[in-house]
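Follow-up to my post from last week.
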Amino acid sequence: MIERFIVIMAGGKGERFWPQSRLRRPKQLLPVVGNSPLLNQTVERLSGFVPLENVFVLTNSLQRDAVLEVCPQLPEENVVAEPVGRDTAAAVALAAFLVKQRNADGIFAILPADHVIYDKASFHSVLNSAFMAAERNKVLVTIGIVPTEPATGYGYIQQGEEIEKIEGHSICRVERFVEKPDLETAKRYVDSSEYLWNGGMFIWRVQVIEKALESYVPELYTDFLKIEQQVKKGVPILTTLAELFPGLQKISIDYAVMEKADNVVTVPANFDWDDVGEWSAIARHSEADPDGNVLKGSVMVEKGSNNLVVSSEDHLVALIGVEDLIVVKTKDATLVCHRSDGQNIKRLVERLGKEEKYKDFL
Amino acid sequence: MIERFIVIMAGGKGERFWPQSRLRRPKQLLPVVGNSPLLNQTVERLSGFVPLENVFVLTNSLQRDAVLEVCPQLPEENVVAEPVGRDTAAAVALAAFLVKQRNADGIFAILPADHVIYDKASFHSVLNSAFMAAERNKVLVTIGIVPTEPATGYGYIQQGEEIEKIEGHSICRVERFVEKPDLETAKRYVDSSEYLWNGGMFIWRVQVIEKALESYVPELYTDFLKIEQQVKKGVPILTTLAELFPGLQKISIDYAVMEKADNVVTVPANFDWDDVGEWSAIARHSEADPDGNVLKGSVMVEKGSNNLVVSSEDHLVALIGVEDLIVVKTKDATLVCHRSDGQNIKRLVERLGKEEKYKDFL
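User reply:
Got it. Predicted complex:
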């Protein structure tokens, strides 16, 4: 019997959401949008699609405790921590192994932990067609989000001809994956109606993705086989991962497989989708005052527009005569950032990591 | 014997230094410039000029405890709290009464608590000449600061002919007092060399200022006489002030007396002087980084210039892509203000006072 599984990738650092997002409690474990942590929303979004015991979360050792706390509904053994991050190809190999241990004929979806999708019914419908496509054919399925604007922050998928329709959803060939474009290119993409956003959601059979790993990243594949063999011999998986996972090739699944394989298909999806990539995403999901300010917690604006301010009830942030700022106040750190510099928060966090006296703020 | 006294006016709210400056601990009780609270610096600046027992501090009931804590060197009975603020004319009447109780022939200086003057020797020298002028003649003496720039934040004194020279300092008639000018007028003032900054420092005999109050604000004068009579009858001064001080006319000494009297003289002073009127004054007294940022406490600037940031060692404030901001982080409140809006902090504080839920932040 072919069984369906979900593996949620939750090992990110969420650096662009500093100072709320921290090494031990990154973005996906915080309610940056909505009332519960993004990971919890991602797990809840799957209810009715697969049973909880078929949902895995891949995280890292720093965050595992917080993941269990945020997702008490998950079986503890389904939350697996990588000892160190080795990018997404190694994570996919580990995911395939976890699923295979449950069901050698398993088919699984890789889903990011930190995306916001409100239309659960539409999401299930697309995901179901994607699973069916992966069941019927030896293909690597990716969900492509129909773009609503010429975003420059996402990679794109150029879709090819429609192969079939499953339960109302097109299954299309993929012509190519393209990197984050500049604005002009993005506009062309959106105008052409040929391009989809790459949302990092993949669906495939265990055997099919293993075959692809073997073909395109053989070194990673054979190194991972050693992990499998050791676990089969009875060595605990955590011990084995601690020993062998750090030696795996560090490469993304996009570079390693998706951009090379010829059996990739995509399911264009129309559901709402937001990867909540940086602070300004919060403003998109919140109501603004008449001056365009989005204010959380105790905030007073004497004069100012288009600011995003995140404070708490017991701490007053006052703004006077400022525009287009992101101000985030946490217990031990405060960010004051121009809205157009949201991408540079990552650079700041890198600097923090290099200075001993600032390590506590990571 | 004519004895010299100093009365320091320390009842201000320091609203422009919110959120550090609070009702119970305003600017003058904080080390906003230098290593000790401004009031303490003001008291220390007098050492060698008059004995400490001749130094009074006028404050208000909310701040008296903090004043005593900040100035442990002062005799406790020299720190007198007004039950409510009634502007500076009433405060001067009270000051005259306090001095008179010690010495009916006393002569005293009124000094603001929150100004910064580093050149103590020069300050003593000017103050000594001012006291001598007030001793010799029945005049109201004011110290006029020789302006170093066309400041629009101060009132000006137009100086007239020199009457005499005392110990190297000119004693000049005052033609008139003028309100804060616009920039163009200020430039004319400075170019003319006829104008001095009004620093709010006055020196006079008890009898001379009492005579002036009687002439120009007779209602205030006679109302204050009732306070004196009640104290002479043996009613404690605090009880008397609580009962009668709130009924006094609310008017500044400048409006009430200085702008009307014809016996006002000024001593032009060349010492350094800063009234530390708002946050940007801090930047003037601090060293900036190569990008013009003045940073106190734990602060990191990823990209940005001409910012003033005040934090603490245990709280990191990070700036990215911002210019000309004042960022002040305290335990329970944070200000983010454009440098050109420093004067609007007062308006913000007024709004806080009107909203019940924000009263704790005053």
